C-alpha cells in the first residue's frame, strides 16, 4: 500500500501497548499492509508461564509468597494476583503512583505481552443505546459522539473473533452480542433465576464471557479447569497474546518490541505532528526513540494519559479535559445461603469460570428514581467456598494443620450477588503528574484524585437492598451485606481520562479516537469513554479500537494523517 515507508526505520505506525486494545490495533493495521511497530513495556509471555492446572498445594509457599507482600501491596488487593501469576501484575515499588491520604485509589496493572487480557475476568457486555445517549435520557453530562447503531458492526466483528458465550435476552438496555452457546447453571443458580424471574420484573441470566464453548480458529472449548487468571493452554479464553497479537505478527508486517517502556510522544516542531515515541529499555534503562508517521496509544486508560501528560505542557490538551472525568465501577453487594443441598467436599475441577448476571433494570424507562440517576448490574455466583483455589490459598497453616483447616472449612453453597453501579463522569475526578515521584525508569508517576459521588453512594446502598430483597425472595438465609465500598479503581474498569466528543473545547479525541489537536495521534483504550454504563468495559474498548483502526487505515490511504 502506498504509505509503506521506504526508510524502514520510519514505521507507518507505532502502537504502544499489546493488551486487549493494542492487539486489535496491531492486527487491523498489520493485516491492512501497514508496517507497524508494537511497543510493549513488559516481557514476552510464553506458555511455560501458564499455571492454571497447579493447585495451591503445588506452590512453594502454598499461595503465601513473601514476594507478593513485599513488592505487590496494591496489586495483591485484587483477587487475581497470586503466587502462581504475580509476575503478570506490576511491581508496585518500581511502578509507583500517589493519592491524597483521604482519597485512596486502587490501580491494578499488568506489564507483559498481552497486558491485563491475560488476567482479566472475561465478562463481556455491550454498552446499550441508553448508555451512548445517557445525557439525553437524564440530563447529566455528555452523550457519546458515536451512537449504539454506529457501534454495532464493530461489536459484531470483535465478538465473532473473540468468541463470547451467553444467552440472548432481547433487552434494549442489555443488547445481545453474537454469542456461542451459554454455560450451564448450578442447581442453586437455577433456583435463584426461577424465583427472581417469577417474582420481579427482572432477568437473571448466565454471564456473557469471552470463553469458548465451541472451537474457534484453532482455539478449543473450555474444559472448566479454572483459574483462568493463570493462563490457558487450550486458548479457550480471549487474550490478545494468542489471538490479535499473534495474527499481527503472522502477517509479517508487525514488529513486536518487548521491554520497551514508553515515556512520551515525540513531535515534529515544524508541523506539530507526532513523529514517534521515546522509550527506555526495561532491562538496561537505555533511552531510545522510534519514529513513525502515526502514533497510537493503547497502553490502558491511565498509562496512555500519563504518556500524553509527559509529552509536553498542554500537549493534546487544548480542551483542558486530559486526565479528567476518571470513572470506575462501584462494587458492592450481598450474599446468602440458598435452600439447596450442601456440596460434597472436593478440591479439584470442574470450576466453571463464569457466574450469573442481572442486567440493569433501574431508570430504564424513567430518568431517575428517588433522585438517583443511572443504574447497576450484578454479577452473581452460587458456589462452594471449598472448591475455590483462592479460598484454599487463604487458609493459613502448614502440614497437618493446613490439611485439617482445609477439611474443616465451610463447604456450603453461598450465593454472592456483586453489584456494579455506574459512576458519573465528573471533572473533579482527575489524574495529573506527580511533581515529586518517578518510576524506576525516571518517568514521572501519576497522582490520582478520585472520589465517589453521592449518586454512586446511593446506588451502592440501593443495589445492596435490592440484592437482599431478591435473595430473601429465593429463600436465602444468613444474609451478609457489603457495607463499605471499595476504593475507586477497585473494579479495574478505569476509563474516561481522554474522552471523545464532537466539541474540541470539551474533549481530547474526536469520534474516531483521533486527537483533536494532533491529527496523526490516536488513543484507542478506555481513555475515550464518555460514560461507563454499569457493564464491564473491555468489549466496548475493543470495538472502539477496531473502529478507530479501520478509520485510521482508510484516512492514511487518503493521505489525511500527514
Ligand atoms: C483481575 C482483573 C479482572 C478483570 N475483569 C474484567 C472483566 O471481567 N471484564 C472486563 O470488561 N474487564 C475486566 N478487566 C479489565 C480489563 O483487563 C481491561 O479493561 C483491559 O485489559 C484494558 O485493555 P487495554 O488494552 O486498555 O489495557 P491492558 O490490557 O492493560 O494492556 C495495556 C498494555 O500496555 C502496556 N503498557 C502500559 N504502559 C506502557 C508504556 N509506558 N510503554 C509500553 N507499554 C506500556 C502494558 O504493559 C500492557 O501490556 C479486568 C482486569 C483485571 C486485572
Ligand atoms: S477454565 Fe476454561 S478458559 Fe479457564 S483456564 Fe481452564 S480451560 Fe481455559
Could you please describe the fold and organization of this structure?
The strands form 5 sheets. A 6-stranded antiparallel β-sheet has the order 4-11-14-15-10-18. A 5-stranded parallel β-sheet has the order 5-3-2-9-19. Strands 1-8-7-6 form a 4-stranded mixed β-sheet. By secondary structure, the chain is of the alpha/beta class. It is built from 12 helices and 19 strands. The chain is globular. Mean pLDDT is 93; it is low at 1-7. α1 (20-31) links the parallel β2 and β3. It has helices at 20-31, 66-71, 129-132, 134-138, 148-162, 187-199, 244-250, 301-309, 389-393, 399-408, 454-473, 538-557, and strands at residues 10-11, 13-16, 36-39, 205-206, 254-257, 260-267, 274-281, 287-292, 295-297, 330-337, 356-358, 368-369, 372-373, 376-384, 413-421, 430-438, 444-449, 477-481, 521-523. The protein has a single domain (10-557), classed as FAD/NAD(P)-binding domain (3-Layer(bba) Sandwich), CATH 3.50.50. The structure holds flavin-adenine dinucleotide and iron/sulfur cluster. Flavin-adenine dinucleotide binds at residues 16-22, 39-42, 78, 80, 108, 110-111, 115-117, 119-123, 260-262, 298-300, 303, 307, 492-493, 525-526, 536-538, 541. Flavin-adenine dinucleotide is lined by residues 16-22, 39-42, 78, 80, 108, 110-111, 115-117, 119-123, 260-262, 298-300, 303, 307, 492-493, 525-526, 536-538, 541.
Amino acid at each position: 500500500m502506498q504509505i509503506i515507508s521506504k526508510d524502514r526505520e520510519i514505521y507507518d505506525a507505532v502502537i504502544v501497548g499489546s493488551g486487549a486494545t493494542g492487539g486489535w490495533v496491531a492486527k487491523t493495521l498489520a493485516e491492512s499492509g501497514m508496517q507497524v511497530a508494537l511497543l510493549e513495556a513488559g516481557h514476552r509471555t510464553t506458555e511455560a508461564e501458564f499455571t492454571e492446572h497447579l493447585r495451591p498445594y503445588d506452590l512453594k509457599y502454598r499461595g503465601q509468597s513473601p514476594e507478593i507482600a513485599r513488592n505487590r501491596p496494591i496489586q495483591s488487593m485484587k483477587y487475581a494476583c497470586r503466587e502462581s501469576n504475580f509476575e503478570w501484575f506490576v511491581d508496585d515499588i518500581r511502578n509507583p503512583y500517589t493519592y491524597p491520604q483521604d482519597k485512596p485509589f486502587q490501580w491494578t496493572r499488568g506489564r507483559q505481552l498481552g497486558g491485563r487480557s491475560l488476567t482479566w475476568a472475561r465478562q463481556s457486555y455491550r454498552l446499550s443505546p441508553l448508555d451512548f445517549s445517557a445525557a439525553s435520557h437524564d440530563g447529566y453530562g455528555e452523550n457519546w459522539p458515536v451512537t449504539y447503531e454506529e457501534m454495532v458492526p464493530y461489536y459484531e466483528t470483535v465478538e465473532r473473533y473473540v468468541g463470547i458465550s451467553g444467552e440472548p435476552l432481547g433487552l434494549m438496555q442489555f443488547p445481545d452480542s453474537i454469542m456461542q452457546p451459554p454455560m450451564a447453571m448450578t442447581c442453586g443458580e437455577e433456583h435463584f433465576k426461577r424465583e427472581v424471574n417469577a417474582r420481579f420484573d427482572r432477568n437473571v441470566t448466565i454471564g456473557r464471557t469471552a470463553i469458548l464453548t465451541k472451537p474457534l480458529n484453532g482455539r478449543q472449548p473450555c474444559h472448566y479447569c479454572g483459574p483462568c487468571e493463570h493462563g490457558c493452554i487450550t486458548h479457550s479464553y480471549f487474550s490478545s497474546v494468542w489471538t490479535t497479537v499473534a495474527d499481527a505478527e503472522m502477517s509479517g508486517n508487525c514488529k513486536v518490541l518487548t521491554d520497551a517502556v514508553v515515556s512520551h510522544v515525540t513531535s515534529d516542531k515544524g508541523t506539530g505532528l507526532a513523529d514517534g515515541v521515546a522509550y527506555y529499555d526495561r532491562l538496561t534503562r537505555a533511552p531510545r526513540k522510534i519514529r513513525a508517521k502515526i502514533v497510537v496509544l493503547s497502553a490502558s486508560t491511565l498509562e496512555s494519559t500519563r504518556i500524553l501528560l509527559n509529552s509536553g505542557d498542554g500537549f493534546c490538551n487544548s480542551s483542558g479535559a486530559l486526565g479528567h472525568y476518571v470513572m470506575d465501577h462501584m462494587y458492592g453487594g450481598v450474599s446468602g445461603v440458598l435452600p439447596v443441598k450442601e456440596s460434597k467436599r472436593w478440591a479439584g475441577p470442574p470450576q466453571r469460570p463464569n457466574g450469573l448476571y442481572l442486567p440493569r433494570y433501574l431508570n430504564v424507562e424513567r430518568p431517575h428514581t428517588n433522585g438517583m440517576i443511572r443504574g447497576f448490574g450484578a454479577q452473581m455466583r452460587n458456589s462452594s467456598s471449598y472448591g475455590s483455589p483462592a479460598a484454599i490459598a487463604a487458609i493459613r497453616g502448614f502440614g497437618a494443620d493446613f490439611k485439617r483447616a482445609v477439611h474443616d472449612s465451610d463447604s456450603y453453597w453461598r450465593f454472592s450477588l456483586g453489584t456494579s453501579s455506574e459512576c458519573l463522569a465528573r471533572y473533579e475526578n482527575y489524574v495529573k503528574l506527580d511533581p515529586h515521584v518517578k518510576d524506576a525508569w525516571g518517568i514521572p508517576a501519576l497522582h490520582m484524585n478520585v472520589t465517589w459521588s453521592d449518586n454512586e453512594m446511593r446506588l451502592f446502598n440501593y443495589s445492596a437492598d435490592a440484592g437482599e430483597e431478591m435473595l430473601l425472595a429465593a429463600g436465602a438465609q444468613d444474609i451478609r451485606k457489603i457495607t463499605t465500598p471499595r476504593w475507586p479503581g477497585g473494579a479495574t474498569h478505569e476509563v474516561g481520562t481522554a474522552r471523545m466528543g464532537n466539541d474540541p473545547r470539551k474533549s481530547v479525541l474526536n469520534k474516531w479516537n483521533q486527537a483533536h489537536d494532533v491529527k496523526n495521534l490516536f488513543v484507542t483504550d478506555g481513555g475515550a469513554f464518555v460514560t461507563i454504563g454499569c457493564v464491564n468495559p473491555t468489549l466496548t474498548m475493543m470495538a472502539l479500537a477496531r473502529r478507530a483502526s479501520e478509520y485510521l487505515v482508510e484516512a492514511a490511504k487518503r493521505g489525511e494523517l500527514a
